[in-house]
Design a protein that fits this description.
Layout: E1 2-5, H1 11-30, H2 39-48, E2 53-57, E3 61-68, E4 71-77, H3 84-94, E5 99-103, H4 107-115, E6 119-128, E7 131-139
Parallel strand pairs: 4-5
Antiparallel strand pairs: 1-2, 2-3, 3-4, 5-7, 6-7
Helix pairs in contact: 1-2
């Protein structure tokens, strides 16, 4: 398993992974609007944000991470229980990520983040894919550096 900066050849497989995630996992949360997030949607997004895109490569692209100004905009691992999500999250944290947003209805993601010390900082509704949805903003508390001497 390698976590690395994405290159242009990673766009299509990363986009396919995310399109599949929306068609299955997120369809349960946002309904048919999830189908609008197809491979072409993610290819365009990832081409625009390639400099910030991180992939987890384990015999192919198995995870995607996008961090913007300390905020995790996207974190998805293809399989659960393989440590891929935890590895991507640890990479994000090590590189300054301190906030993220989750659909309140995404209980699996909520449990995952809470197990790793992330705390709910805000609970709100906003528009997403043409409808109002409830979201939770999580933050990771900073651990102060120990003073020497």
């Amino acid at each position: 398993m390698i976590i690395r900066s994405a290159v242009a050849n990673d766009i299509a497989p990363a986009a396919a992974l995310m399109a599949q995630a929306y068609a299955t996992h997120f369809h349960l949360i946002i309904g048919d609007a999830a189908l609008d997030f197809d491979q072409a949607h993610f290819e365009a997004r990832f081409a625009h944000e390639l400099a910030e895109l991180i992939v987890l490569d384990s015999d192919g692209i198995r995870g995607v991470l996008l961090v913007k100004e300390g905020h995790i905009a996207m974190l998805f691992a293809a399989e659960t229980g393989q440590g891929h999500g935890a590895a991507l999250l640890a990479h994000a944290e090590a590189n300054g990520a301190r906030s993220l947003e989750v659909f309140a209805a995404n209980e699996g993601a909520r449990r995952f983040y809470e197990r790793t010390g992330w705390q709910v900082a805000d609970d709100y509704e906003r528009e997403f894919a043409g409808a109002r949805h409830r979201f939770l903003r999580y933050e990771k508390p900073m651990i102060p550096a120990r003073r020497q001497g």
